[in-house]
Amino acid sequence: MDFNLTREQELVRKMMRSFTENEVEPIAAETDRTSEYPAETIDKLFRYGVMGMVVPKEYGGAGADDVCGAIAIEEISKACASTGDIVATHNGLCCGPIMKHGTPEQKAKYLPMLTSGHVGAFALTEPNAGSDASKGTTTAVLDGDHYVLNGSKIFITNGYVADIFVVFAMTDPSKGTKGISAFIVEKDFPGFSVGKHEEKMGLHGSPTAEIVFTDCIVPKENLLGVAGKGFSIAMQTLDGGRIGIAAQALGIAEGAMAKAMEFTKSRVQFGKPISKFQNTQFKFADMQVAITAGQYLTYAAAAKKGEGKRFTLDAAMAKLFTSENAMKITTECLQMFGGYGYTKDYPIERMMRDAKITEIYEGTSEVQRIVISGNIL
Amino acid sequence: MKIIVCVKQVPDTTGKVAVKPDGTLDRASMQTVTNPDDLNAIEAALAMKDEVGCEVIAVSMGPAPAEGMLRELLAMGVDRAVLVSGREFGGSDTYATSQILACAISKIGLEKEDIVICGRQAIDGDTAQVGPQIAEKLGIPQITYVAGIEKDGDKIVCKRMLEDGFMKIEAQTPCLLTCVKELNQPRYMSIGGIMEAYSKPYEVFDYEALKDSPLMDAESIGLKGSPTNIFKSFTPPQKGAGTMLKGADKNTCKELAQILADKHLI
């Protein structure tokens, strides 16, 4: 059993750390303040092969393994969880299902686009179908050589910047989850439009929007996988996506802890730096244990995915553990900053706001507990 | 056309400097980085490769762990890497190093349109001597302090930075350039580059590989063959904050004169 990262995984960490320090961190606070999509950073992430990094070389990707994918998101999220979210969604939720379920023609058309500047998204959630994804009401009706989609999807990450969407719709509402199918939808297809842009508590730089289908024409060949297997494709995709969110949560926690360590070493109260108080030291010790344990869970889930083994349970455990710890750690770190932590002069309040979503999206903590218990009972 | 870039692994100056009893650096106990100016040299070569599609070869002299640095350069886009490494080369000063590197470069082979690029100087020794000495050993033209490069066939026109301006110098290739940080902003490794870094051509040239080169003189390599003897290496003590005198009046001038007189400077 080898717990060491490979040479390539170590280099990905080094490269992403340097990129994050120079390109992501300097604009993270401004991105949060203005809620502006970090377009320039994403362009650079395409240029350096981070966007679509797990796509095989033959389709323009770097052919990186899933552990490299997780490390990249972890490193970016140390400074900016919004940018981490954009990358995680693109790689895990859009490139992922097309790589796994796409036909050779779909792969040949869409994967090169997703590695050369076209952003991807994933559209499953609806107003009345969140955790219970089977209750979606968006429909897809076959009409000759195309499907006609009607309905809307909400909380779609990359919603107003993406060019390519993996969309789930009912092709046979009478069959429940077995009546759901997946489609690859381009933003320029007739009848596709972007609705409300969400104003969120955190992740301000991550563009979240409603997307609307009004008699949207989707060519028949854009059906992803087999008709009626959409629910299974969605669940498998979310298993992979959860590794990305676990990595994002890890990054947020590590970023917050690094900021808190720096602050407590320089903040003097009662005649000494507050890092010298055992209360502070023990808190950091507990945080480090949670972060290291979270890394093992996350990388192990990613490695299993890469080996083609079943990783549903591993991904759910990693996501549950790291997201709940990200919330705990950012809260503890903010406490160490005292009143300063509650101001926008320091990044810690942003990190705490950003951490909260990791307990909610791509399956809430409650859903993860359903998945975990369902796999072990 | 190919570009050979000479690079050096240097101690990370943000860490502590360790020195061996013979006065040379104890590299094993220090964190290392690629010499910053050498990254500008790599970027210049890669930019030219992006433009005209030439081959870029990185050459470094150092101990075996320098392979890590060379793999990072391969991940940035360098095509081939050569590590010049051998017990016989240990402790070489700039004179010996430039001789060994010149041997390595002539073994790789310099053709009519080729260019050798070095960083201006390394942050550990700060001598800026190796690049120019390599050019002398190879008998090719050199342009130092390069802040801009235009290539046209077998001619090259460079902007040479001076303290108060710049010169434009034309040279015939093959030639050697030493570049300054103002030349460019080095790129990062790319994910695709990282995935290929360990499968790209990588060679080690030891003494055996270079000993028959006409440029090699076994008497002037390594610590014994180096004309420079290091008497002592140390980190200079940090200077104090200094004293600021404010005012343009006579009293301030008197005060300044008194300080200088007290220190026997006037």
Please, how many helices of chain B? 8
User: Which percent range describes the beta-strand content of chain B?
Assistant: 15-25%
Give the count of structural domains of chain B.
Answer: 1
Rg measurement of chain A, Å: 21 Å
- Roughly how many Å is the radius of gyration of chain B? 22 Å
Primary descriptors:
heterodimer, A: Butyryl-Coa Dehydrogenase, subunit A, domain 1, Butyryl-CoA Dehydrogenase, subunit A, domain 2, 4-stranded mixed beta sheet, 4-stranded antiparallel beta sheet, 10 strands, 53% helix, 16% strand, B: 266 residues, alpha/beta, Rossmann fold, 8 helices, globular
How would you characterize this protein structure?
The complex is a heterodimer of chains A (377) and B (266). Chain A is α+β, with helices and mostly antiparallel strands and 377 residues long. Chain A has three domains: 7-114, Butyryl-Coa Dehydrogenase, subunit A, domain 1, CATH 1.10.540.10; 120-228, Beta Barrel (Butyryl-CoA Dehydrogenase, subunit A, domain 2); 231-376, Up-down Bundle (Butyryl-CoA Dehydrogenase, subunit A, domain 3), CATH 1.20.140.10. Chain A has helices spanning 7-34, 39-47, 66-79, 81-101, 104-114, 230-266, 278-306, 312-337, 348-358, 365-376; strands spanning 120-123, 139-143, 146-157, 164-170, 180-186, 192-197, 208-219, 223-224, 268-269, 272-273. In chain A, a hairpin with a 2-residue loop joins strand 2 and strand 3 (146-157). In chain A, helix 3 runs antiparallel to helix 4. Chain B has 266 residues and is an alpha/beta fold. The radius of gyration of chain B is 22 Å and the shape is globular. The mean pLDDT of chain B is 90. Chain B has eight helices and eleven strands. Chain B has one domain (2-225): HUPs (Rossmann fold), CATH 3.40.50.620. Helix content of chain B is 29%, strand content 24%. In chain B, strands 9-8-7-10-6-1-4-5-11 form a nine-stranded mixed sheet, sandwiched between helices. Chain B has a two-stranded antiparallel sheet with strand order 2-3. In chain B, strand 7 (142-152) and strand 8 (155-162) form a beta hairpin. The A-B interface holds A 7-8, 11-12, 14-15, 18-19, 47-50, 53, 57, 61-64, 68, 72 and B 71-72, 75, 188-195, 197-198.
